[in-house]
From TrEMBL:
Protein name: AIM24 family protein
Upper taxonomic lineage: Bacteria, Bacillati, Actinomycetota, Actinomycetes, Kitasatosporales
Gene3D superfamilies, per database record: Mitochondrial biogenesis AIM24
Highest taxon, organism lineage: Bacteria
Pfam families (UniProt xref): AIM24
Length: 226
């Protein structure tokens, strides 16, 4: 291999999911250990890997995702190495050890198919959102990959009395055991968010983390649904 290009070759496999650089995910695939990934996220693979877009198990769980749409997921199965990406976004790999994570749908890249997952209403926000907000909760023992528009910050809420406030357009994921509530602020609207009208933040408290991206991409954020 040309010496300058050799530095871009994938490193030996050491885990089920690993980063290849900041913007690509490498997954070690094995028969019987299927993966659910965002449709269209496959950029390359080695070996024998098959894809099934929107499989029956996904359609059944995702009926409540949003009216008239299914979850944009595909089942990946087989043996080899699978490489995933999402338009150059940073990739964040999480190894769940019996705990869980609540994720914005647009930031969900891939996760082990055996994990428990579903679409749930975010409690404490209905009076602010009108009809409520929906998010994807994943839990169990296994791997999850998220995307972030830029290098994210992981805020440890610490279990103290102080709340952590986040612009919903910059929110990626959070620990599902955190308490969540909405806050409106007219005075802060010139500082938070890119839209017009009153400012709206999500307040988190308790023991857990919040993942925030350095981008206020308001396209298809938290799911609104009645």
């Amino acid at each position: 291999m040309n010496q300058p290009l050799a530095g871009y070759a994938p490193a030996p496999v050491t885990a089920r999911m690993e980063n290849h650089g900041n913007h690509m995910l490498k997954v070690a695939m094995q028969t019987g250990n299927d993966l659910l990934a965002r449709v269209g996220s496959m950029v390359a693979y080695e070996g024998f890997i098959q894809y099934e877009p929107n499989p029956p198990a996904v359609r059944q769980i995702a009926r409540d995702w949003i009216t008239g749409e299914g979850a944009p997921l595909m089942k990946c199965s087989g043996d080899g190495l699978l490489y995933l990406a999402d338009y150059g976004a940073d990739v964040v790999v999480i190894n769940l050890n019996g705990d869980g994570i609540s994720v914005n749908a647009t930031n969900l890249l891939a996760f082990d198919a055996h994990l428990t997952w579903g679409v749930e209403r975010v409690k404490g926000l209905a009076k602010f959102a009108g009809q409520g907000l929906w998010n994807t909760k994943i839990s169990g023992q296994g791997w999850v990959a998220l995307t972030s528009r830029g290098k994210p910050i992981v805020v440890d809420c610490g279990g103290g009395e102080d709340e952590t406030y986040v612009d919903p357009d910059a929110l990626v994921a959070w620990s599902p055991n955190l308490k969540v509530k909405g806050k409106r602020s007219f005075k802060a609207q010139s500082l938070i968010g890119r839209g017009s009208g009153e400012a709206y933040q999500m307040a988190f408290s308790g023991q857990g983390i919040v993942v925030v991206q350095p981008s206020e991409d308001s396209t298809d954020r938290l799911r609104f649904r009645g």
